[in-house]
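dude i think i finally got it to work??
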Amino acid sequence: MQKLILITNDDGIRAPGLKVLAAALRGLGTLVTIAPGEEQSASSHSLTIRERIRVEHVSKHSHVVWGTPADCVLLGVQGIMSREPDLIVSGINHGPNMGEDVTYSGTVAAAIEGTILGIPSVAFSSLQRTIESADEIGSIARAIVTAVLANGVPKETLLNVNIPDPAISPIKGVKITKLGSRSYGNILNAERSSPGEENFTIAGDEPVWKDDNGTDIAAVRMGYVSITPLHLDLTNYKAIVEMERWRFEL
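look at this
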């Protein structure tokens, strides 16, 4: 049976990155695009609860969901597709998703939802925000998806892929990495609108990254595609051992 692949994103159904991804994966299986009707960047793993979610069925293999990326995956798997997909691919995001930013990312959240549902899932992001190098970026996505279809992914694990900008320097290869870490300066912009009221915009400067060896940020800075296996179990097992010594006066 031919592989069934669900494609989604957080930049919306009209995003160039989504079109590059769909074109790149053509021929690897039956592709079904289920994407948000409008941009959902930084929506994280939000689900639309107890509200109607409108779905536009553009064609048999293209559907628009007026909801979040996680909504797209849940509705796709349990309400739209004829059978459970063999793979879920999210992206290609217009900008990186590395370090702590994976917790905010709608692109990564779509892959998380797929993993929760027991389906192998991959999230793709490009450091080239305009994705003008479509052929090269698309070919990298295709190569990684081909490897995933051949090898699978570990249980309860999703793959977070960040592709360097090929216009800056040639891409050297692939590195399997851990999450890096970053900090933002001046993240809030404040504006007083009237007495007793203040408006804030979350924007801020570009992040400052710790350039630690083996991280996603270190890999892309050296010109390598970063693949970070993310596990759904967020438990700090070392902390469990330490906290078992605590005394609780109940």
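The chain has a mean pLDDT of 93.
im so relieved honestly
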